[in-house]
């Protein structure tokens, strides 16, 4: 059963009423199909009204939805013959990063992404999608392998940020992220990144130095969480909603600032409502991106990537 978010309360109440009438119709000798149909039409209109006027904080909540599809869900729905690789050949395997090789429309690709859990047990195992240094080193190992065999690289971003714990710092968290930024900038194969949920801080950026960056409609990308920003700016984390509006972290904001290339539409209510359809929406964008990048020479790919990030931001005196 899909969980409703706070701003979806009117929809939840209407859905409960529809379910009550359906149950009553099933258990009693009364035909209420007309009333049910009217309520379902009302539900559709109300849903469209709510989602057409969605606010930044609402998008943050959708991006954090516990049932939102993960990298693994999209790998299973979009790619064929996925083979997962493990380990950084230095310390160990970080399950907060999933990666390997697969086939996309008959073409071999390398796919890498953040992976959070679907329940408490899996979240603990995957460290809630917050990678340690070995996760980023595993990602870089797979990227260099892709470069060696001329495979395009597709990255999926979905993390609150890199793990900030003591062990991660001892093993070189900052260096691992910086190394990824440096090496990704010079990769000689096409790199496409898609923000599928939360994109937090350097933990997200470590998979984001790409020729093309796309975002799902309700995903977010920011240097810090709204709660963290509110704590710094106003010493009050409860002002996260205000911070989310000021930070301009949503896909429409980032598209307007030309930080991302394309917004991938989500199904009504968010990607968690129809994973199959959402995967099809993503597949169309991926296919188009790979087609645009496939014949570009390596030196041009590198130059385009460099110019893309150099152009971000506005300088005024």
From TrEMBL:
Pathway it works in: Lipid metabolism; malonyl-CoA biosynthesis; malonyl-CoA from acetyl-CoA: step 1/1
Cellular component GO terms, alphabetical: acetyl-CoA carboxylase complex
Ranges where the CoA carboxyltransferase C-terminal domain occurs: 39-292
GO biological process, alphabetically ordered: fatty acid biosynthetic process; malonyl-CoA biosynthetic process
Alphabetic keyword roster: ATP-binding, Cytoplasm, Fatty acid biosynthesis, Fatty acid metabolism, Ligase, Lipid biosynthesis, Lipid metabolism, Nucleotide-binding, Transferase
Cellular localization per UniProt: Cytoplasm
Major site of localization recorded for this protein: cytoplasm
Keyword Transferase tagged: yes
Reactions performed catalytically: N(6)-carboxybiotinyl-L-lysyl-[protein] + acetyl-CoA = N(6)-biotinyl-L-lysyl-[protein] + malonyl-CoA
Top-rank lineage group of the source organism: Bacteria
Membrane-spanning residues: none
Molecular function as annotated in GO: acetyl-CoA carboxylase activity; ATP binding; carboxyl- or carbamoyltransferase activity
The keyword Cytoplasm appears for this protein: yes
Listed InterPro entries: Acetyl_CoA_COase_a_su (IPR001095), ClpP/crotonase-like_dom_sf (IPR029045), COA_CT_C (IPR011763)
EC code: 2.1.3.15
Enzyme class: transferase
Pfam families on file: ACCA
Function in brief: Component of the acetyl coenzyme A carboxylase (ACC) complex. First, biotin carboxylase catalyzes the carboxylation of biotin on its carrier protein (BCCP) and then the CO(2) group is transferred by the carboxyltransferase to acetyl-CoA to form malonyl-CoA.
Oligomer and partners: Acetyl-CoA carboxylase is a heterohexamer composed of biotin carboxyl carrier protein (AccB), biotin carboxylase (AccC) and two subunits each of ACCase subunit alpha (AccA) and ACCase subunit beta (AccD).
Similarity-based family: Belongs to the AccA family.
Protein name: Acetyl-coenzyme A carboxylase carboxyl transferase subunit alpha
Organism the protein comes from: Viridibacillus arvi
């Amino acid at each position: 059963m899909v969980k409703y978010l706070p701003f979806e309360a009117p929809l939840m109440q209407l859905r409960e009423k529809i379910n009550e009438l359906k149950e009553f119709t099933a258990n009693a000798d009364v035909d209420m199909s007309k009333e049910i149909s009217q309520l379902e039409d009302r539900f559709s209109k109300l849903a469209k009204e709510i989602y057409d006027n969605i606010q930044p904080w609402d998008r943050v909540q959708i991006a954090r939805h516990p049932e939102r599809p993960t990298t693994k869900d999209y790998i299973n729905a979009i790619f064929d013959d996925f083979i997962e690789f493990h380990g950084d050949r230095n310390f160990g395997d970080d399950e907060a990063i999933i990666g390997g090789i697969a086939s996309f429309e008959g073409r071999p690709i390398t796919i890498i992404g953040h992976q959070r859990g679907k329940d408490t047990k899996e979240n603990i195992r995957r460290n809630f999608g917050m990678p340690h240094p070995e996760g980023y080193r595993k990602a870089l190992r797979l990227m260099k392998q892709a470069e060696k065999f001329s495979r395009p690289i597709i990255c999926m971003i979905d993390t609150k940020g890199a793990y900030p714990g003591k062990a991660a710092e001892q093993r070189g968290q900052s260096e691992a992220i910086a190394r990824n930024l440096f090496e990704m900038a010079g990769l000689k194969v096409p790199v496409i990144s898609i923000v599928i949920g939360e994109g937090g801080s350097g933990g997200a950026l470590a998979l984001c130095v790409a020729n093309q960056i796309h975002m799902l409609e309700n995903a977010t990308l920011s240097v810090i969480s709204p709660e963290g920003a509110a704590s710094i700016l106003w010493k009050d984390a409860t002002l996260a909603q205000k911070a989310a509006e000021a930070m301009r972290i949503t896909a429409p904001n980032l598209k307007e600032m030309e930080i991302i290339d394309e917004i991938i539409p989500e199904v009504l209510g968010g990607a968690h409502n129809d994973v199959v359809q959402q995967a099809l929406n993503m597949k169309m964008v991926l296919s188009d991106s790979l087609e645009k990048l496939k014949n570009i020479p390596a030196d041009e790919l590198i130059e385009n990537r460099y110019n893309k990030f150099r152009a971000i931001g506005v300088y005024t005196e």
